[in-house]
From TrEMBL:
Belongs to the archaeal Rpo12/eukaryotic RPC10 RNA polymerase subunit family. The gene is LOC101242260. Its main location: nucleus. This is DNA-directed RNA polymerases I, II, and III subunit RPABC4. Keywords: Metal-binding, Nucleus, Transcription, Zinc, Zinc-finger. It is found in: Nucleus, Nucleolus. DNA-dependent RNA polymerase catalyzes the transcription of DNA into RNA using the four ribonucleoside triphosphates as substrates. Common component of RNA polymerases I, II and III which synthesize ribosomal RNA precursors, mRNA precursors and many functional non-coding RNAs, and a small RNAs, such as 5S rRNA and tRNAs, respectively. GO terms for molecular function: DNA binding; DNA-directed RNA polymerase activity; zinc ion binding. GO terms for biological process: DNA-templated transcription. Residues 12-22 have a biased composition (Low complexity). PANTHER family: DNA-DIRECTED RNA POLYMERASES I, II, AND III, GEO11084P1. One of its GO terms (cellular component) is RNA polymerase I complex.
Amino acid sequence: MSSTPASSFGKSPSGRTPGRTPRPGEEPVAGQPKAMVYICGECHQENEIRSRDPIRCRECGCRIMYKKRTKRMVVFDAR
C-alpha cells in the first residue's frame, strides 16, 4: 500500500492538478469562476463580472460594457 493519504489522490506533490500549468500571473482557483474586469460605457466605472452575473453596470445600470485591455504584451506577425 502507498503511504500517501487518500485526499491527495490525483494531485502532484505540489498540490496542483496534473496536466495543467497556470499561466504567469494566474493563480490556481478551485471551483470559482474568475471575474473579468469590464468598463461601463456611460459612467466609466470598472466592474468585476463573473460568468453567471448579469452584464450590467453596478453603478448606473447601463448594459454597454467594454472589456478592459490586457496588460500582457500582444505581438502580431506581419506576413
